[in-house]
Amino acid sequence: MKDKWIFTLFVLVFLVAYFTPFDQLRVQHGLTEAFLLLQDYAREHVLLCLLPAFFIAGAISVFIKQGAVIKYFGAQAKKILSYSIASVSGAILAVCSCTVLPIFAGIYTRGAGIGPATAFLYSGPAINVLAIILTAKVLGYRLGLARALGAVTFAIVIGLIMHFLFNREVEKNRNQSDLIEMEDIKQTRPMWKTILYFAAMIGILVFINWGKSDPALTIWYFIYQAKWFIGVFFVIGLALMIITWFKKEELKEWTSSTWIFAKQIIPLLLAGVLIAGFLLGRPGQEGLIPSHWVADLVGGNGLGATLFASIAGALMYFATLTEIPILEGLLGAGMGQGPALALLLAGPALSLPNMLVIRNIIGTKKTLVYILLVIIMATVSGLIYGAIAA
Amino acid sequence: MEQSQRDLGIKIKGIFKGEKMEIRILGPGCPRCDEVEKRTINALAELNIVADVQKITDLKKISEYKIIGTPGVVINGKVKCYARIPTQEEISSWIREEL
């Protein structure tokens, strides 16, 4: 970090320490809520959900050949394939938010063009593995599923609209150059082994987090009661695979890439949870911001609330995963389900800083149209989901 | 260039063709790219080779290398890998290739 920034940080901390009215009850309550929410995450989400999720993310970046996916973004690739792959491949390619923009720039300038590029830009941050897993765990599987489906569907719509609006002009300017071929990485083990390995990890994650359900739903309740046995079964399976199928260096790469993700994301998530807890409190509690403010602005599933949530989400910057504790706080304070989905869709896809980067790549006009489309599409998905959820 | 190296007191072992090796690390500046930079510098130190290592963070410049996805490693203008974090051994072997 540059000294300039460290100094700015010092000044900010000083100003906060100087001016915050810590003697006010509301502020004290907010601080307590911040740490209670943090404890909630530490107890409920870290060991069983975040930790396995990081290992899965690490494994994806080491053992899944991204080149196989990336070649469908080349200028020569079939358009239908480019769009479908662009809208879903975020799950594999966008494990950390910092990979989204370089891939977007690459697809736009060297590859399949503006349509698939914007499709990827919209869906990538919303469907990366970590985001899906934590959304489903913290906010409920319904919202997690709606987030993934909404992102994929509307990514294609946005991509196609951008394609029809701008394609002609882009084709002219773009140099249709070939991409550098990915080097052939030696296939070290057959495909089915890799699939089983990922299945075991996902099995662990899904079953040890199995939610309690109504005893009347016999099968679900049975799985809930047996979740530890099933989980341990998968853990043993995974351990056997790791011992027999993997080389020592591969395991080292896996842990090191898991560690890189954790190092990058956990500090931001920690800050996000504390801020969300301080401002909004845990569900059912009130933080610094009175709940009725939230309910007034984004309560219910109306057009106004949903549109406001989309615009706010588009402007705000969320570091990877921090949208989740913030949304948990907002939902607890009375935000409607529809606006929540709108914020989840517009939030990570856009922010003021990344608008500037996107503008640098595709120009002002296209950026403005893209922003407008994201806000419209997020609002529409929010309204649909709000109507279904209500 | 040779002058400045002598001034810095850096001894150059191995084959040195009069030009410094040029290594570019492509990435917008996140821990994954930092890791690649760290491994590159370690590889150079282990091989005792002097090279001009620069990080390129500008997305427009990155896309000029005809790649999709970061981090990328470019040695003497040749893209060695992208969209993944290479091991230090791999980086060492690329450096030896380019000597």
Give me the secondary-structure topology.
The complex is a heterodimer of chains A (390) and B (99).
Chain A: H1 3-19, H2 25-63, H3 66-70, H4 79-88, H5 90-93, H6 100-110, H7 114-127, H8 129-139, H9 141-173, H10 191-208, H11 218-225, H12 227-245, H13 248-280, H14 291-298, H15 303-315, H16 323-332, H17 337-349, H18 352-362, H19 364-389
Helix pairs in contact in A: 2-8, 2-10, 2-13, 4-7, 4-9, 6-7, 6-18, 7-9, 7-17, 8-9, 8-16, 9-17, 9-19, 10-12, 13-16, 15-17, 15-19, 16-17, 17-19, 18-19
Chain B: H1 2-8, E1 21-26, H2 31-47, E2 51-56, H3 59-63, E3 72-75, E4 78-82, H4 88-97
Parallel strand pairs in B: 1-2
Antiparallel strand pairs in B: 1-3, 3-4
Tell me what portion of residues of chain B adopts beta-strand conformation.
Answer: 15-25%
Q: How many strands, what sense, and barrel or not for the largest sheet of chain B?
A: 4 strands, mixed
Mean pLDDT of chain B: 81
Shape of chain A: globular
Total E-strand runs of chain B: 4
Number of helices of chain A: 19
Distance between the termini of chain B: 18 Å
